[in-house]
């Protein structure tokens, strides 16, 4: 089994390559660190990639996908290596854990609808990583694993199926658990490449012994033939409390248009449902590329639940990656 492992030191936010004992999912302190040699020339935390991308390089997606129009799922289609960024799919899945502080707050939030709104915001923050990325990660080998450990959470992913490609992901925080099986269906209609999640994501909070199910929205890639390619988010994300199924949250994503003030825009509602009656207690406002605010519909109180961290200085040379991803 191939394995990659990264440890974040508690005193310093540096990544340290470590050899570990087997991953134990039932406790927070799980590693016996063997810290990398301090004389190693490679820094423990890097500010940029060792090899930079030419941001002006042009890639012709059309030559690869032109024969796939109308053929349904194209996930098995092979692409040249220059379509990839220097990460594996397992590592890229971990990038969605950048803003897990939101889950620490949600895990202790007594208001159930505020809690489900915070779950929605965490989902939005995890999807924000696609804002500037237009390349794909490398496919993992069957049985390959990736572990990422910080003082606040532990993350583990494994490639559990090759055809179809399926990744099992698990993240354990102090008072919460997040898990999913990840695989997608992709289709190309001549205008955009649409990516749909096959499986759903789940959050469990220990304090309340409740589990939430998330149906993610649809991602799409545009300008594959002419112009600068970009990834967009559209349609609706739905979250439901599986233990109290009248507690729900829906977030609608607006696809980019010619009007700049509509770009990245989203609106959401956290509500209870009684028959056909919907009692909205919180709304979610913002843009998935930079910030989200939760608003109490009764008191009008606003809580800025998430603000995106700044990108590295030469982000265009580093495949659109955020500092956390590097």
Description of the structure:
The protein has four helices and 19 strands. The chain has 326 residues and is mainly beta. The chain has a single domain, classed as Porin. It has a 17-stranded mixed sheet that branches. Strands 3-4 form a two-stranded parallel sheet. Strand 6 and strand 7 form a beta hairpin. The longest helix is centred in the middle third of the chain and has 16 residues. The protein is globular. The two termini are 24 Å apart. About 9% of the residues have low confidence.
Helix content: under 10%
> Helix and strand succession?
EEHEHHHEEEEEEEEEEEEEEEE
Mind summarizing the main beta sheet? 17 strands, mixed
Estimate the mean pLDDT confidence.
Answer: 84
Given this structure, which CATH class is correct? Mainly Beta
Helical stretch tally: 4
How many strands?
Answer: 19
Class by alpha and beta content:
mainly beta
Shape: globular
Q: Rg from C-alpha positions?
A: 20 Å
Taking the alpha carbons of the first and last residues, their distance comes to 24 Å
Fold topology:
Elements: E1 3-8, E2 15-17, H1 62-65, E3 84-88, H2 89-94, H3 101-106, H4 112-127, E4 136-138, E5 145-149, E6 153-161, E7 166-173, E8 176-182, E9 184-188, E10 193-197, E11 201-205, E12 210-215, E13 218-222, E14 230-241, E15 247-253, E16 265-274, E17 277-287, E18 291-296, E19 302-307
Parallel strand pairs: 1-5, 3-4
Antiparallel strand pairs: 1-2, 5-6, 6-7, 7-8, 8-11, 9-10, 10-13, 11-12, 12-14, 13-14, 14-15, 15-16, 16-17, 17-18, 18-19
Which features characterize this protein?
4 helices; 326 residues; mainly beta; single chain; 17-stranded mixed sheet; Porin; two-stranded parallel ribbon
